[in-house]
Amino acid sequence: MSDARLSVLKTYKLYVGGKFPRSESGRVYEVTDVKGDWLANAPLSSRKDARDAVVAARKAFGGWSGATAYNRGQVLYRVAEMLEGRRAQFVHEVAGAEGLSKSKAAAVVDATIDRWVWYAGWTDKIAQVVGGANPVAGPYFNLSSPEPTGVVAVLAPQESSFLGLVSVLAPVVATGNTAVVVASERSPLPALSLAEVLATSDVPGGVVNILSGRTAEIAAPLAAHQDVNAIDLAGADEALAKELETAAADNLKRVVRPQPVDDWSATPGLERLTAFLETKTVWHPTGALGAAGSSY
Amino acid sequence: MASAFEYAPAPESRAVVDIAPSYGLFIDGEFTEAADGKVFKTVSPSSEEVLSEVAEATEADVDRAVAAARKAFETWSALPGAERAKYLFRIARIVQERSRELAVLETLDNGKPIKETRDADLPLVAAHFFYYAGWADKLEHAGFGPAPRPLGVAGQVIPWNFPLLMLAWKIAPALATGNTVVLKPAETTPLSALFFADICRQAGLPKGVVNIVTGDGRTGAALVAHPGVDKVAFTGSTAVGKEIARTLAGTRKKLTLELGGKGANIVFDDAPIDQAVEGIVSGIFFNQGQVCCAGSRLLVQESIHDELLDRLKRRLTTLRLGDPLDKNTDIGAINSAEQLARITALADQGEAEGAERWSAPCELPSAGYWFAPTLFTGVTQAHTIARDEIFGPVLSVLTFRTPDEAVAKANNTPYGLSAGIWTEKGSRILAVANKLRAGVIWSNTFNKFDPTSPFGGYKESGFGREGGRHGLEAYLDV
Amino acid sequence: MLPIVPDGSDSAPGSRGVYSRYARRYARLVTMPTHTPAASPVPDVTASESTLRRFLHGLPGVDAVGLEARAAALGTRSIKTTAKAYALDLAISMVDLTTLEGADTPGKVRALGAKAVRPDPADRTAPATAAVCVYPDMVPVAKEAVAGSGVKVASVATAFPAGRASLAVKLADVREAVAAGADEVDMVIDRGAFLAGKYLKVYEEIAAVKEACGTDARLKVIFETGELSTYDNIRRASWLGMLAGADFIKTSTGKVAVNATPANTLLMLEAVRDFRAQTGIQVGVKPAGGIRTAKDALKFLVLVNETAGADWLDSHWFRFGASSLLNDLLMQRQKLATGRYSGPDYVTVD
Description:
- Chain A contains ten helices and ten strands.
- By secondary structure, chain A is of the alpha/beta class.
- In chain A, the strands form three sheets. A five-stranded parallel β-sheet of chain A has the order 7-6-5-8-9, with helices on both faces. A three-stranded antiparallel β-sheet of chain A has the order 3-4-10.
- In chain B, strands 13-14-15-12-11-16-17 form a seven-stranded mixed β-sheet, with helices on both faces.
- Chain B: Residues 32-477 form the Aldehyde dehydrogenase domain.
């Protein structure tokens, strides 16, 4: 408890493919609190970091999307458990990042953990809500079911560094997608710490990849990447969003445009869950049991 | 002694349809000329006969049409859903009443066989309006919140391969949800949309709810770029779809795209072989292969390749190519000289790249645009004809050895619209269907459509779904 | 799929894949000049119950919806004018004019024979039917009635229609019909044995009947498809019948609820087409029961034309087992000739 004790500082790192690399660029940038006081140096991700993250996310997609929905729910719930255990750390980081009082920051962290639990519970329910049998006019069994879109680039909201982040990330992975997250540029530390939680939960490496740095710099190669299937532009301003949406058209990424969010703590709808789902419809002949056939 | 059973000509009567020498744009309930008075000709692809002259809409015309739709939106969206439903039911019924006329018209303008317009296009058009009519007063139960709102004015651009059916896919859900529309039919097949305008008139549909602007790609570009449009729905090529997506970047317009495909039709060695042959035929030769979800790549298990090809070729020799109005015609005309040139070029490239070409022996008429049903064997994933959408009656045959390999090859394309699986083993169907990255999968069947069944692609085949409950989402503010 | 059983003989050149595996197994058949009785062995397929079962269960499956859809699609062919005239005459020439009633009398059979020889008394250009089809005891009467005309006499046999009798009784039935001059024998298979999986019993019975038919009488094998119930069964029965020496495979007795349908006939046409492609042996097809109108008959001819092909468009290879069908064919023929619709008073009552 001695004031004289020098604290141990954490070197924040990226989270790519389940590992914690430094930026390939070897560069960092200064992260400060709202008053401008230094908090940490965060990795300044390069295009190559983005590329590596996409490769990791693609590699993880088969296993994660192929896992049972129940299993995904269990894994994501485990993340919430780990978050709860690190609650104090996140309160501290969110308070620093967003300039909140300790009690307000605690409320944000609680809401974030609850948000994660909410999405964890959706994994094995969304298919029943948005899929189903279609009563086609013929001897066919016809079933539509949702499937994850693939690799989703997520530009986390700039202001809400933790609740906002989880609100855009959790729905992406709950439905079986894998994610490349660009953390809030000014407040990346909660995101980088979340990586440590994910790494110690049962989330397979590569399912979530987290990059810090200049949003516009990292987002551009992601938006243009031919092996990224979708992009959530929550953390882009209007001009950047337009530029990225234009680039995303090259391989027809599914795009979620940025929308003003007053209150990230409001209960979300299904919009973000369904935004990165494809509907697959399978037809199969049924036919009669006997070869009675037609009447003549 | 066996002798040939030659089917005598059995033409459907043309007299059932009365095509005017010229048509205007349908804006705000009236047919009007284009602002600059320009027109273009629409021809019958089976004979190159000019069917009519059609107005070519300019930006000013598009602007008028959008304004009319905007004005109509206020009252249309405020109508009780039950009232909108009744308008759509009326339209569905009138389509049924006039289905023979519309089938003949569509065959004349598009070149597809009358048996397809009569037995597939028109019944599906009516069914689509019936289906969405019923949704109009039940939207609060559709799973999009307690009071889902329409978007406003929908700008819709449709292709020439199923002119009236694509119109139905676009207009029915748009109107059911309370939107108004400006629709641009394809340049080569404008007539059925203009006849549909008359159906709207007969149904008493309020002015401006449906507007039809004819023209080429420039008209379409003007429509999707128009700031008064709240929603863009496009069916057509992936290249144009990308261009539209770029145009809409940074706007608030909602976009759905139904684009190209390179569907894999996978035949395992335990397939119901005769039905598989039929499925391959309907997969790639239905509508002369001018189908976005066509099974244009046949992936056949190597152990039955020769056997299946023998059967397939024998079957193709029975296809009857010719006058689309003949009720016994299986293969009609290619829609345009431009499309024929594209098919021809790609087929020639297939040959140049070393694939082995085989065409069904059939005599091609001297006038019009024709291409014999053709298949290529010895095709690999690297061949252009295995990667590019040909949009014509050309089948590329590839082989595989194991289910894993079949899935890997099927998915090895930027497209992801359709796929087929042929096997008698139920678990294999489910396992393979699960792994295929495509929006519509037909197991032991192919090219089946239904208004209740969502249709649309993965990856570069577009996004959004048409049909079913899912199809409502494209036109609701959710 | 069946494992390939090497038998040392190579199949016909160029044929590989689904059917070639079993083709190799009965490759010897290919060398036979005619479809002679199956006393000529196909030991690797018919050596035992289990080899026969494995063979039949290794045939490709049939998807019912796809099969029926194909049959329905071919049913939309529009047969007009010259094609219709050709098809109507062809259909008439393919009719096995049938009476199979407990109340059949010599008088009835004589009348039927006369009608078969000259279906339309008012129009000598109308072709004769292919055959009359009667019970064995009526064969002598029928022979006399059609004598010199070229019209064949077919006799049902083997305890028609149920087939529930001992083999000895069935063979006696056949021998009596053949001795009385039957040109064709329409036997029923033992559906009970088939459904119980005793394929070898069915096979041996057909082979025995074929032998009893000798070289003069052609054998039609009736499966009673309505009782076999599934299309997979119909395909298996078709191959079983052909392997055992059938000259014709025939759908039905006409005595059960479901008789000939476009779908089951299409399936059997596929079977004979494939059998010939693999063995060189052509087998005929006879849908029977329930085909009452010319319109329906023409749909069946379209099935033949576009499935088995023109080689089967001949009364030697395709028959209609029917009675009332003939009058409708004749009325349609009169309509085509005169331009007026005909009526039942202008054709003869059987």
